[in-house]
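Tutorial sheet, problem 5. The two components below are modelled jointly, 882 residues in total.
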Amino acid sequence: MLEPANTAAAPRGKLHAIVAEFDDVTAVTEAAKRVRDAGYTQFDVYSPFPIHGIERAMGVRSTRLPWIVLACGLSGTAGALLLQWWTNAVDYPFKISGKPLFGIPAAIPITFELTVLFSAFAAFLGMFALNRLPRHHHPIFEHPRFKRATDDGFFLAIEAADTRFDANRTRELLQSLSSHPIVACDEPADDGATPRWVRAGLVSVAVVALIPFALALASRFQDSSKPPFHIVGDMDWQTRYRAQAANPHYADGRAMRPDVAGTVAFGELATDQVLATGKTGADWTTKIPLTVDAALLQRGRARYGIYCAPCHGIAGYGDGLVAARASELQEPTWVPPASLHDAVVRGRAAGQLFDTILNGVRTMPAYGRQIPRDDAWAIVAYVRALQRSQNATTEDVPPAARAAMGL
Amino acid sequence: MAGDAHGNAPATASRSWFRPSLVEGDQDFASVTRRVAGVVERPKPPRAWYIAITISGTLTLVLFSLVAYLIATGVGVWGNNAPAFWGWDIVNFVFWVGIAHAGTLISAILFLLRQHWRTSINRAAEAMTLFAVCCAGLYPAIHVGRIWLAYWLFPVPNQMSMWPNFRSPLLWDVFAVSTYATVSALFWYMGLVPDLATLRDRAVTPLKRFLYGFFALGWRGSSRHWHRFERAYLILAALATPLVLSVHSVVSFDFAVSLVPGWHTTIFPPYFVAGAIFSGFAMVVTIMVPARQLFGLKELVTVRHLENMNKVILATGSLVGLAYLTEFFIAWYGGNAYERFAFLNRALGPYSWAYWLMVFCNVVAPQFFWFKRVRTGLLPMVAVAILVNVGMWLERFVIVVISLTRDYLPTSWGHFTPTLVDVFTFAGTFGLFFTLFLLFCRFLPMVAIAEVKTVLPAAHPHAPQGAAGKEHAHA
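Model answer (structure tokens):
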């Protein structure tokens, strides 16, 4: 009668293998040869270290692992070359000192490293995969003395799956080879598989863990008008005060500092009061303090087109594109710009127009930061010309031309 | 493993290479298991272990604090400044990468060369490699300043639609060092799996049985598995051999591909590799001597192992000395004024003390290994090994700092002074290295159990009956 491996009364599965124990390498190697010669193929020898020549004694064919490693290594080579060529020569060409975008010599170090990396992973993962490891649960572990297999014991197990397996004859064969008791190892009733809920849990965790990567991948194929998202702000957040922000360090609470009393900022020294403010004493000047000529009018016309026409319109009737669009949208807060040909505006002094351009009026913003002083005078001159053109009388036409115009 | 390497004829050929001094004492399979597993299994480590890990753990905390300080503040906390934008960060990176070379060299190259004496020391040396790579890899990562952008070094699609420049030696370095770290870890772990199974089967507490068992992956010593295992080990050794030579070659390209006088030389790759092996073996000797004393492994890691490593140190140290001479000769023979100046400046300039100390440590000190008494005496060999470690650090300092502080334009010359943060960060990497090594000694088998068994006489069929153990065979 065989000694059962599982002494407990727990329900047992079917027979897995019959196992013999040996004390030295020579005995187990001889036994392996005898078992092989008896025609068995589904058997295994367990030892604490690789026994030299046991593959031949057992009739084990050489592993195909080297071919797997070769295939993976070559894909590493090809992958590295493709990666370097596509990224640096096609997708984002790096032009460095007129050198070719892709060259084998400079590509060798990375190609070599990736070849080795892929091969090493193939050797490591391939070995364990071909060995069907990790497998933490195996019927052979039911053998009561099997712990010696990682210390100083040698075991030979003939599996029940072998076509020549016969419980009695196999046992007799092993008994003739080993003086230790022969042990039968059963498949445990509980196959040791991971419970279904654990597997389901692991799968769900894996799926949830993939969601951020899936979102990142999806966003690569979408257009977005938002600025890029940086986890670390770098230059997006700087330790400075923005315009108009509050700063508690100053008594007046303002971060923007006014000029120190008694000082003049660079470029802001006004030696000519009329030119700088448009006033003589307390009154607006009626005369433009620059020489009004064709060049000044041309300059004023250009500046008017850039800064004024969008609202006031090219002819000055307050019908610019911005005003037109605001009226069309019926913006409730929109105050239409004044027509420059109203009697009120036409009656204003040149100095007052100049002041309005620089400092704004009602809802019109100040343009003093964008329009230099002389350009503002040029615009005033051009506005005067516009006003005259739209409100001309017969007296304005030169007498010589009146007849030609039928006046 | 070693068993694969000694030819096909089982009986006579396998004994012809065997020399009894590979392990000492009357060892059998069970006593090898007991001896190595006993270190891990004893309830408490020796008192010296506690003292050592307290010191190294404190230094590790210092390292982490200083790295946090650096990241929060910027690289300005180091002494790097114009013109020496590379300072101790790169010196220490190259120093640690060099140390990392011995482990894989012992595991792979000596394996392919059928040097069976490697079996007792390869596990610890491989572990040392991994821990040295950890220390080395830290520096390039933190010296970039904005460490959160370190992913720019990898070809990851990003919002800038840009790719790294694959023609830059700095990028080759990233690939070389990360590949080396990965392959070393795979090699080390694969060799560990059968020994973890041994620890699993000897574990007395459920927690240890679970943890060792989990990482042993259910290894059961099947001969069909051993066959593929040995083949995979041979392949990994064959892959790691050119890899270990390539890593320090690529590190040397960081310098050699530039145009700085003193860096731009073709001798750099072989010179760096020889220096790396030199420093790596010195570090193995430095830490294996106390480790074998402390953990009672004198019979497995014998004086013969140490002597063999000292011979390698002597050979590579002489190679390094030859490289120093060759550099000077080429600087003169090449006729380039800047190159000549760079080398004269090394020997006679403001850092000449570093140069001559380096020559003493790297060229003169190992020559004492010509004497057998120095080669086999524990104290003298550790003294020489420590000198070599100091010398190899100085070599990197000489190359990086002296060349950068005085290059083409005298108006841009400068002087490099490290800060306290530099000094304590470097000390902290030693803390990290020794902490990891001490944890390794405490929780994992320091010697490859299965591999040592293959070099016992009883490991071969037709060995003298009964040599393996107490019970006799029945075949």
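Marking note: Chain B has 17 helices and no strands. Full credit if you identified this.
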